[in-house]
């Protein structure tokens, strides 16, 4: 990748009048840098850090920092038991402690420095004093227990964020204790066995320490510090030659280490390696908008859908890495990437007031509830998407997120080695810095960027000074417009840093316009999904958000967020996109109501695209998608303002049908009452299939997949493998196993209605049926095939899992309750799939193969009006009183389509639609089981 994109801009200055143009050499000579340069042999960085506090947020950016002061980071000590000042090893070395205090303090101290908030500043100072007081004579500090807690040697991973906090404290306050303190600690570290660098979380994350070691070396010139960096690099994880680890936060932190080491080694391959690692990850796992990648713990091959989340720690650590790489390389693409994460992903990692947080943020995310997802959607089995304090549920994120905005603010402006300034990221702020070797300048950056396209810089200075001013032109901007004191200055499109060197004077004004327009990006690796950008913002479907406080307190609420409008839209290719501005609230932009910019384009509903039974959006499918639904206007809002969102959209207007993902089922044995599972929850080929108590593990769930010719495959939800017979045996008592779906004949089964609420599964290869070895009723008894001899262990029933929808095959409409009534005897009807709660039902297993079918909205169960046994009697909902008309059984249709009839226990008649109507609100009734198409239903 080309690294040096800076250019020197000349011209326009004659028109500007009084200014004197300095040649670069003269400017450099005249303007020794006021900020710390890398000391030899470290190679120079492209840009230099300004001390914390040099940049102050304004406008919408100040709102984010204010929210942080009053939200989780600023007040987390009130609730996090990890952050009790007198009860942690970070102030009392005999006590315990790990990364929580150091994560939190890193963000908290800089929150104080960028806001100047006196409470935060004084509290931060007290903590720093406490930490400094823990240093032992050999240089170690913090909890004594960490000296030996990692394979008998020291675990210094938790120290690394603390090092960054201590450096920031020194830069802000000039505290003279920090340099000797760090010298003693690094001296301790330099004497440790190599295991310290090889083990634990730290081995992936040593870049954090290298940054501070260089800072100290620039201060002191102690040669041992460079030896320490070499020791770290050669012993810690190798990010130079590939990805040594798959954990999302390790990647977000670790990939930058080679470029950091390259500052010492001077080898191009080290710098290149960080680019390569970033590209490796993004090319495979970052194929959706928002700047992150699919890392809902680890990156996992094939799990790359935009529903996969990126951990909040991943967001802020990736931002920090990109900020550092921007400084080292001077390549503006890193600053583009910081903005992508900051504007699109970070805001929605928290609730709008910043008082609760979630673990992962997903580009496509249509429900944020506090329920674990157990169907393999994510790697973790705990609830990750509702907003809460998360103190113990996911300790890292609520303690670590705090550095996100403060570091962003600090890195918006950087010093240049030749005495100038660089605007790296944009937003409303002021910066005060020393330029040209000693002149103080304050630049007010007046803008609502990224919600508006014009950035006005007003310079206030005590006298004229000659220095370069570098302005980042983002990659997405092809035709920037630059004016200095009203005079146009030519500037080329991005990505580049455009540099203007001149003699600047008090009152000078620089106006940079970065024209924005809607653009559509196609994601070929994501089934040809599309996303819509406007400048640095990416846009999401506006979904009505129903916020429900499910716990916590007023200050520390816990929220679920549910969709109150349809979300399953694709976008019409080539449709016009109109831009609406002048709406919302530019000072507080990150909610649907406040979004200051909205886009309108054309979309179509994709009826088959549904959430799964646990309210997780199902993955994208190959598009463009065939759609017959009407074209409608759809409103898009900035991704960062949308807590519920579709951001990667299917395209409509194609020829590919969307294949709905059906319901999951448990398969219950009539004889034993146990359900079919995989021994040991194995994911391996040839693992034995067994029966077990119905205890809710994911290997007890199966999907029914049409295999054609009247056959189905049964796919295990946990392993994705299908039900098979060992070695394709045709013998009695051959073991039934799971195997990869390779299409062999023993993977095909017929579902045969036994007529009594139960069914048999006949193997397509052997003709034998599924049973249990020895008719056992024990847990873990082996499933086998056997001649169809009619024993009770050959009978199974399908139990639909979770809340499902019941769709009429003839009309395509859903089983619903009239007007969403919650009253007894309300009529059951069919209705278009609009996603309302009365369309969802839960099958409650009852005796003899029957179920009660309960409506999710009303809590009442499906019955027949007046317990009638007549044809065309109205089907209604009623309290679950146990009458026989409340019992129904599933009768599986032959033909492999997965459709069923639903038969009433009292009347023997089946669920039907009055006059086989296809209209909305047609009544649902019972009718004799005579095979008309309106008697067939799909469970979805
Ligand atoms: Zn985390």
Automatic annotation (TrEMBL):
Top-rank taxon: Bacteria
InterPro entries from the UniProt entry: 6-hairpin_glycosidase_sf, Beta-AFase-like_GH127_cat, Beta-AFase-like_GH127_middle, Ricin_B-like_lectins, Ricin_B_lectin, TAT_signal
Listed GO biological process terms: carbohydrate metabolic process
SUPFAM superfamilies according to UniProt: Ricin B-like lectins (SSF50370), Six-hairpin glycosidases (SSF48208)
Domain Ricin B lectin intervals: 663-799, 801-940
Pfam families: Beta-AFase-like_GH127_cat, Glyco_hydro127M, RicinB_lectin_2
Protein name: Conserved uncharacterized protein MerU
Organism: Stigmatella aurantiaca (strain DW4/3-1)
Lineage of the species this protein comes from: Bacteria, Pseudomonadati, Myxococcota, Myxococcia, Myxococcales
